[in-house]
Write a structure and sequence with these properties.
10 helices, single chain, 78% helix
Length: 232
């Protein structure tokens, strides 16, 4: 078994032991009940918004919570002297949390909307958005040691991530929003329920993948700075 496989299994056990799976299941049930109350004709427009919001909890905040837990338990300091590389540590988090959020959100969508959606675009949107949120969550939380210090900055950060919803909901339209990384994955989520142009699907995949790659590189530098060197 490779180091990455071992790290993924460890992460899944850690998430289960600390109630992350129970929290995801509870949120999924609540969201499903809420969405059942809405007119089915409105769901193709509403579901991408709900899914995007749910993923903020299931990826960004779950990642932040895992890092803070591991800091508190001294796990991250211990990893420095193990053969596990920084890239493998981050990749394990990406795999475990992405799988969790895909299963959770596909389950919600299927429960409230049936199977009348584009599974490929939904899975691509969920997977790429999950990777983005996990890495962004790590970058955001790495310098903090407690949830109290992290909470307010995290709210401001997540608010900036929702800016493309202004365009999606018709409040403000600007081509500049196509520079925002979340615009790409939001288009993929939209395409799972509504027709989108082929160029939008291509843009969504490529631009989101570009951001994931950039954030992965940035996360390794942040790990070295705040976890290994312990800079303030």
């Amino acid at each position: 078994m490779t180091r990455l496989q071992t790290a993924v299994r460890w992460d899944m056990r850690l998430q289960f032991r600390n109630g992350f799976y129970y929290a995801a299941a509870f949120i999924a049930v609540i969201m499903t009940i809420v969405l059942w109350q809405l007119p089915k004709a409105e769901l193709p427009t509403i579901l991408p918004v709900f899914v995007l919001g749910n993923m903020t909890i299931g990826t960004f905040y779950f990642m932040a919570g895992l890092v803070l837990l591991e800091k508190g338990d001294g796990v991250l300091e211990g990893l420095i002297v193990t053969p596990l590389r920084q890239s493998e540590y981050l990749a394990a988090k990406l795999v475990s949390l992405t799988l969790l959020t895909i299963v959770e959100n596909v389950g919600i969508v299927t429960a409230v909307y049936g199977l009348n959606y584009n599974l490929l675009l939904l899975a691509l949107g969920l997977g790429l958005m999950a990777c983005f949120n996990v890495l962004f969550g790590f970058i955001a939380v790495a310098r903090y040691d407690s949830i109290n210090r992290f909470l307010l900055p995290s709210i401001l950060i997540t608010m900036t991530l929702t800016l493309p919803l202004l365009d999606y909901l018709g409040f403000w339209t600007s081509p500049l929003l196509y520079l925002h990384p979340v615009q790409a994955t939001l288009l993929l989520l939209k395409g799972a329920f509504q027709p989108i142009a082929a160029w939008q699907a291509v843009y969504g995949v490529l631009y989101a993948a570009l951001w994931v790659g950039l954030l992965f590189k940035a996360s390794q530098r942040i790990f070295y700075r705040f976890i290994i060197l312990k800079q303030a």
